[in-house]
Amino acid sequence: MRTPQLVISLLSLSLLFLFHSSRAATLDPRCSAADHGSNLRVFHVNSPCSPLRPATGLSWAESVLRMQAEDQARLQFLSILADGKKSSVPIASGRQIIQSPTYIVRVQIGTPAQTMLMAVDTSNDAAWVPCTGCVGCPSSTVFDPAKSSSFKTVGCQAAQCQQVPNPTCGGSACSFNMSYGGSTIAANLSQDLFTLAADPIPNYTFGCIQKATGSSVPPQGLLGLGRGPLSLVSQAQSLYKSTFSYCLPSFKSLNFSGSLRLGPVGQPIRIKFTPLLKNPRRSSLYYVNLVGIRVGSKVVDIPPAALAFNPTTGAGTIFDSGTVFTRLVAPAYVAVRDEFRKRMKNAPVTSLGGFDTCYSVPIVAPTITFMFSGMNVTLPQDNILIHSTAGSITCLAMAAAPDNVNSVLSVIASMQQQNHRILFDVPNSRVGVARETCS
Ligand SMILES: *[C@@H]1O[C@H](CO)[C@@H](O)[C@H](O)[C@H]1NC(C)=O
Ligand SMILES: *[C@@H]1O[C@H](CO)[C@@H](O)[C@H](O)[C@H]1NC(C)=O
Ligand SMILES: *[C@@H]1O[C@H](CO)[C@@H](O)[C@H](O)[C@H]1NC(C)=O
Ligand SMILES: *[C@@H]1O[C@H](CO)[C@@H](O)[C@H](O)[C@H]1NC(C)=O
Ligand SMILES: *[C@@H]1O[C@H](CO)[C@@H](O)[C@H](O)[C@H]1NC(C)=O
């Protein structure tokens, strides 16, 4: 067995210096540039603009392996079907925050504004931030409700109080607990002014975290962009018409040009669309219809049933901003991988963590095309391969869905979305994809 340490020692660590040196230096001036209109800059959580990047200065290989391990936990959450009780939409269940979100934006909360970093997450509805006095929250940056004149708690009688897990009434205010693994958080359901770029959204409902135990609570807040009733898409429906797009920069990029564009204004016109599908049992998720996959010019052999959308079992394909590496249901992954290896003229294959198709010789990869209903998206090498910095190892940056979960869901993840604009157009029930360089 190859141990992670051995794997790391096989890889060049030169990116380490990028992360390290920028950490020591003063914040890059580009980091403080303002957001404009309805556009927010999007940062990778490990970027030099992010105070949340790991303090220990993870090497490239370590961060890749860690991201992949966290993907595993996220897939578990994404693969769980709701129990069918439509009235109960958890603001954030334990499983929903076990993942480590990857891309962050700045959000101003309260009056006067306090700047918080929040992870954007298309598969969650929740919004929450750590609050003053929080016992056990890992972040030193917390939101202080006492300093905001527009802050208020949500009463027990409010409809939103029925949508959170384990609601309790402390006096008249609604609070709730969530547990996950060995960890728990306790939060007060609250409302305050959220300002996204230049747009004020009064009375935004979110969880103000008072107490956290265990080590899995991510330090930043979470901004859910899912489709459910407590998400940004629903709460700001009149402003943004359930329409937004983003371009995610490469996680290696030191540029800060990723963006989250909210609302129908300024969205790309030259863009290809595929229909958006709705699963009432997973109301947050953005399902699409993946019908086939091409490696180079060859459509690989995948039984159509393996890719079919099925609301009852949860089967199908989603776009997700929080998973890093695309996961395909096993029959699809195996078909893609086998064809990919064949194109490499059967050069010797090694593995790295959960990646099973890696090469220690230079390779030229074929394109991979996701064939959705009405839309083919052809990915260039940058979206397909992950390279160690010295080029000593290169892996196909996808994997099969983990087999310890209900493995019927394929997830188009952030690495495969980087440098594309992904447009979520809920009123017209469609998802658009266009190339856009934003690294
Ligand atoms: C949050 O809830 C706790 C327990 O109900 C309460 O003691 C605390 O004052 C609340 N905090 C705020 C900011 O409302
Ligand atoms: C929530 O957590 C608080 C403090 O940890 C505890 O006193 C309370 O009993 C919990 N409530 C529920 C419903 O679990
Ligand atoms: C926000 O809540 C306050 C107090 O409940 C209310 O007076 C105000 O009208 C609300 N604002 C909007 C825009 O709904
Ligand atoms: C940053 O942007 C510049 C110009 O826009 C480009 O030349 C450079 O390659 C980018 N850097 C990275 C790491 O992507
Ligand atoms: C996608 O590619 C397949 C196979 O090459 C082709 O048959 C199909 O017409 C294409 N679909 C679109 C919408 O371009």
Task: Please provide a brief summary of the model.
InterPro entries: Aspartic_peptidase_A1, PEPTIDASE_A1, Peptidase_aspartic_dom_sf, TAXi_C, TAXi_N. The protein is an alpha+beta fold and 439 residues long.
Explain the layout of strands and helices.
Blueprint lengths: L3 H7 L3 H11 L14 E6 L15 H19 L15 H4 L5 E7 L4 E8 L5 E9 L16 E2 L13 E4 L2 E8 L2 E14 L2 E15 L7 E4 L7 H4 L1 H4 L2 E5 L10 E5 L9 E6 L8 E3 L1 E6 L2 E2 L4 H4 L8 E4 L6 E3 L1 H14 L6 E3 L2 E5 L8 E5 L2 E5 L5 E3 L6 E3 L1 E3 L8 E4 L1 H4 L2 E6 L4 E6 L4
Parallel strand pairs: 3-10, 4-9, 17-26, 18-25
Antiparallel strand pairs: 1-2, 1-12, 2-3, 2-8, 4-10, 5-8, 6-7, 7-8, 8-9, 11-12, 11-27, 13-14, 13-28, 14-17, 15-16, 15-21, 19-20, 20-24, 21-22, 23-24, 27-28
The structure holds 2-acetamido-2-deoxy-beta-D-glucopyranose (5 copies).
Family: Belongs to the peptidase A1 family.
GO biological process, one term: proteolysis
Keywords: Aspartyl protease, Disulfide bond, Glycoprotein, Hydrolase, Protease, Signal
Describe this structure as you would to a colleague.
With 439 residues, this protein is α+β, with helices and mostly antiparallel strands. It has 2 domains: 4-75 and 86-262, Acid Proteases (Cathepsin D, subunit A, domain 1); 272-435, Cathepsin D, subunit A, domain 1. It has 9 helices and 28 strands. The two termini are 36 Å apart. The relative contact order is 0.16. Mean pLDDT is 81; it is low at 1-26 and 82-99. One 2-acetamido-2-deoxy-beta-D-glucopyranose binds next to strand 22.
